Amino acid sequence: MNRVLLTSLMFIFLLLFIVSPFAALASLMIVLLVSAFLLFIRNIFLAIIGDG
């Protein structure tokens, strides 16, 4: 359950970095956002299944 919360926080912080007006590496942040989203979905799926 801690991994799900940590991934959720990382996902939220990455969203904040992308929409911030001072994001210098916006394209790299979009790649990080996609990978964090996939990791987030995977961790949610594993939490539902109960593999922990």
Describe the fold and architecture:
- The chain has 52 residues and is mainly alpha-helical.
- The chain has one domain (2-49).
- The chain is built from two helices and no strands.
- It has helices at residues 2-19, 26-49.
- Helix 1 (2-19) packs antiparallel against helix 2 (26-49).
- The longest helix has 24 residues, at 26-49.
- The N and C termini lie close together (8 Å).
- The relative contact order is 0.19.
- The model has no long low-confidence stretch (mean pLDDT 77).
- Looking at the chains present, what oligomeric state does this protein adopt? single chain
Poorly predicted regions are none
Proportion in β-strands: under 5%
Note the gap between the termini. 8 Å
**Elements, N to C (H/E):** HH
Indicate the radius of gyration in whole angstroms: 12 Å
Task: Count all strands and give the number.
Answer: 0
| Helix content range | over 70%
Tally of alpha and pi helices: 2
Structural class: mainly alpha
Query: Average pLDDT across residues?
Result: 77
Question: What profile does the largest beta sheet have?
Answer: none
Shape: elongated
Our count of domains comes out at 1
Offer a few descriptive terms.
mainly alpha, 0% strand, 52 residues
Summarize it.
With 52 residues, the protein is mainly alpha-helical. 81% of the residues lie in helices and 0% in strands.
